[in-house]
Structure formats: structure tokens, C-alpha cells
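FIELD: query
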Amino acid sequence: MTPTIGVLALQGDVREHVHALESVGATAVGVRRAAELDAVDALVIPGGESTTIDKLLRAFELFEPIQARLRDGMPAYGSCAGMILLADRVIGGIEGQQTLGGVDVTVRRNAFGRQVDSFETDLAIEGVDGPLHAVFIRAPWVEEVGPAARVVGRVESGPAAGRIVAVRQGPLLVTSFHPEVTGDTRVHQSFVQIVRESL
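FIELD: result
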């Protein structure tokens, strides 16, 4: 069965995620309205600016429908700002910032620094064969992982060695990095497999 995966199309690398998902055998569509959300099996929340996406989710009346689908077990993948939005707790958020939640983690916004502090490194990610080249852009990291969540990737070397950058909880996957910008589709392939297992 070919899953239909929505990509939240309010901000971020929407086209890149759509292309990556389609290249690994999923049907991918942009999601801007609740009716479009109703038609998908799963959702990808791209990077961007988490506080802006939070405001846009409310403006487009998507916050509560997405939250309800997540509570009902809809698979979701969040990269960078998407990780923040799927986290249950955030450090360094702006006043009034809310998250969709679902992943039992505490995430620190902009933990790796500003845009000029963006970097690339190779990682080992559970469920992905071989090293994965990861791009971090003003990225968060995970400070704490609750008992329901499982660490699936850490920075292996350099000043951020040991920092948690990928977590899975049931059908939810979050990464600090942007796999959609490298042309490597293995994270998307792993997520599509999670979606297939949930159908």
C-alpha cells in the first residue's frame, strides 16, 4: 500500500520534503487546511521558525486538528523546528509559545547557536544503514528524554559530542537536522516504513 503523507506547507523546505517522500515510494501532498490533513495517513513538519509556524498553525486553524490526529496515533516526522513543535517541553521558547506535543522530550531551541553556527557532520541513526551526513541550521537539541521516547541518534564528535539529535516515540520521529537538504532520503525512507507499519 502506498501511504499518503502530508507535508505541512506553511513555512520551510516543503518541496524538498515532498520530493524526498515521493522518491521513496510515498504519495506526498502539501497540507494548509484541516480538510487536507483529513486526507493524509501521516504528516511531516518541516524546519523553519518554530514560533512562526506555531502562529501560522493557529491562523490556518490547523493547531487543534493536528494535535487531535497526533493523539489518535497519526505518524509524524518533525525536522528542526518540527522537532520543537512535536516536543512536549521547550527551553528557550518565546513567551506564549506552544507545541503540538506528542514526543516525551525537552528540547532547547537554537541550542547549536545562530545561523552562522550552522554545521554539518556524519551521524549514526538507528534504522538507517551506514553513516548519515546531517546538516544543522540554527538547530535544537534534546536536553531530556522521558521514558516513553527512545534516542535514535547523537552527535558523535566535536564540541557537541553526545548531544541527542534524533528521537522516536511510537509512530513519531524527530530530528534536529534537515535530511531534506542533502539529497539523502534514508531518514524519509525510515519514516515511510513507520507509516506503513501503522496502516
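FIELD: remark
The two ends are 9 Å apart (CA to CA).
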